[in-house]
Amino acid sequence: MPSGRRSSSLLEPSRRRRGTAWALIGAGGHAKALVEAIEAIGGRVAVYVDARRSTWLDHPRIARDADLADLSLQIAIGFGAIDPAGLISRLAKLDSLLDRGFQAPPLCHPAAHVSAAATLAPGVVVLAGAVVQPGARIGRGVIVNSGAIVEHDAAVGDGSHVAPGAVVLGDANVGRAVMVGAGAVVIQGGRVPDRSLVRAKSLWLDKVARRKK
Q1: What's the predicted TM-score (pTM) here?
Q2: How many CA atoms lie within 13 A of 87 on its CB side?
Q3: pLDDT band at residue 208 using 50, 70 and 90 as cut-offs
């Protein structure tokens, strides 16, 4: 379940942060959706951090996040991951920036529905068409991707990724750094161990946590 470290129950996410300047960490394909979300809430990307110059972003670039020094910038992790190892690395990047004093408020596209009774930790991204229902607990750095659904009272652990069209049903508990593939369903009350891969379009039936090999 989501860690208490750096947790936030604010559904104060992005929607109240008009005019806020953001630093985008990574400028790959996933970052395009984040830029759209930032601009849709009235924010702006002030700088991006990537070793390679982007072909689609016309903003100032910093090659290394170690050189990012302006603590007034809000942080959005602009690279995704599709397996547990990548998700762990992505979470480590977020945590390293939080430890340096940067803020990473939840970023919610205005075309998503996020209940005011849900809990979102720092670094959460909820993209267009996604639904997060009352009582849901979304851990640090989680991606709730386009059209994904996290139902009532479900928990999604730190660093996990609920891919487009995936559904986490009520009272389910998705562990840390779990990849829930596109179109997959975690059944009501299901328990997904840390660092698991729930394959695309599959049905996760386990209600007792056990690690998948």
Answers
A1: 0.89
A2: 27
A3: low
